[in-house]
């Protein structure tokens, strides 16, 4: 890209000012600096964290990304805010359970070799599980969902374990005491990304007990992300799956 821009400047096809705009690594909106260079550095464009931002701010950031033909993922967006955004940008798809907006503006590569497993302990954890599943799908991965398979009825997990074992990586989501990743980790030979949720009674401490259980797991191959961070768990799984595909 840089060589092509320099050639255009040399031949007079491109002014220095226009070239500077093309080479800019971020766009300053005043309240935000949109990182247009992130896809070149990390392989995926910037993701908008919607919580704490107004609908107008999200719209302005999204428009800046649309101009660069970037796919747009907005996490932590409630229904009211999403509807306000969709009135201005109707191409956004909203997923209410996951509190997530997505707009496809460029083709993400589809990784057809293999899939990732999203393994969720209980129905109360679905918001985090769906944030993870939809994030992975937005990045072009096949996702297989295994929901309500917590340790209180472990036979439900065993009914799906053969299919889970065939995944490249599993994202395992659980609240309460957070034991599910340890169980899955002892049954599969691929990496586990554990996601604690804030679901549970008082001594769960809004997910702290699940987080500590996962950090203290005796099963090998488990990495842990922050409480309720379905996006972070899925993003790590995407990176692992991409590397696995490169090696094939």
From TrEMBL:
<dbReference type="Pfam" id="PF00731">
    <property type="entry name" value="AIRC"/>
</dbReference>
<dbReference type="InterPro" id="IPR039476">
    <property type="entry name" value="P2CMN_synthase_LarB"/>
</dbReference>
<protein>
    <recommendedName>
        <fullName>PurE domain-containing protein</fullName>
    </recommendedName>
</protein>
<dbReference type="GO" id="GO:0016787">
    <property type="term" value="F:hydrolase activity"/>
</dbReference>
<dbReference type="InterPro" id="IPR000031">
    <property type="entry name" value="PurE_dom"/>
</dbReference>
<dbReference type="GO" id="GO:0006189">
    <property type="term" value="P:'de novo' IMP biosynthetic process"/>
</dbReference>
<feature type="domain" description="PurE">
    <location>
        <begin position="114"/>
        <end position="246"/>
    </location>
</feature>
